Amino acid sequence: MYESYYGLSDKPFRLRPDPHFFFGSKGHKRAMAYLEYGLSQGEGFIVITGEVGAGKTTLVRNMLSTLEAQHIVAAHLVNTHLNAEDVLRMVVSAFGLPAEDANKSALLSRLETFLRTCDAQGKRALLVVDEAQNLSPRTVEELRMLSNFQTDDKSLLQTFLLGQPEFRTTLHSPDMQQLRQRVIATYHLGPMDAVETQAYIEHRLHTVGWNNNPSFTPAAHAAIYEYSGGIPRMTNHLCDRLMLMGFLEELHEFNDKHVDDVIRDIQAEFQPPPAAVAAAAPDARHSDEAELAAAIASYPDAMDERMMRLEKSVVSVLNILKKIVAQPAGASTPSSQDNND
Is the CATH code 3.40.50.300 the one for domain 26-189? Predict the structure, then answer.
C-alpha cells in the first residue's frame, strides 16, 4: 500500500527471508565466507548459529541462489520438530525422493542410491538443516550417520546446520563428540552495529527504488537501532510499520518521535489482556522486551499476513471516506432513497 505512495517498486521490509534483499554486513560476509569454505571442502559439517531473526536463513538462501553453476544438488530442511526416523524421512523427501510407506532401511537405500547417482553425474549433494536447536541429540546423531555415505575418496553428502545459540549446548554435549570431529567450521552470526543497521535500512530501500522519500533523520535511525538491537527481522518489522504510518499520515520524513510512536503501538499489541495481568505473579506482570522481540521474530509469515490484512482494511476504509467526502451536500444515499420510496 505505501509502496506506490513513496514510489517504490515493492515492499522493502518484508519479514520473510528473501535473498533479493541480502545485505553483506561484516558478520554476514564472514558467515558467507565460512559457508563458501565449507562448499570448497566438499565434506563434513558447517555450523552457523545466531539469534532469532539474525538473518541465518536469508544468508543460506542467498548462497543457494548461486549454487546452480557449481553443480550442487541442495535440499533445505526447515521443519525440525522431528524424531530420528522422521528426520530421515524428511531428508529423503527434501531431495525429491518418495518417502511414504517405507521403513528406515528402504529410506536409507533410496538416499544412498540417489547420492551415488549424483556423484556419477558429477554433482554434489548438500543438506541444509534450519532451526537445528530443535533437534534432539539422537536426531543430530541420525544426521551425522548420513555423512557415512561416501566413496573411496570423497563424501557423498555435506551438511550445513543452522540454529539459535542454544544449539551450541547440544553440539558441545559429551555424546556429540563424533559430530564435533566432523565439523570443519563454525560461526556465530551476531547483530549489526548502529552504522550497519542504517546501511541495512538504506540498502533495502534502494533495492526497491528509494529516492530519499521518505527520509530518516539521524535521531530516527538511532531510535530504530535502540529498539531492534541490530537484529534484521526486528528492524524490518519496525520499519514496515513506520512506512505504513508515514503513508497514513502523509509523512515524508521520519524522526525519533515517529519511531517511538510506532514502537508504542507494537508493544501495546503484544500486551496481555488485563485479566491475564491480574492473575500473573507480581514479578511477571511486566512484559520482557527480549521475549517480545522473540515473539515478533519467530513468526515472519504470520506477521506478513497480518500486515497485509491490516493494509487491505485501511484501504477499504479510506475508499469509503473518499466517497463520503466526494458526495455532494444534501445527496441521498442509496439506503435513504429506498426508505423514501
Answer: yes
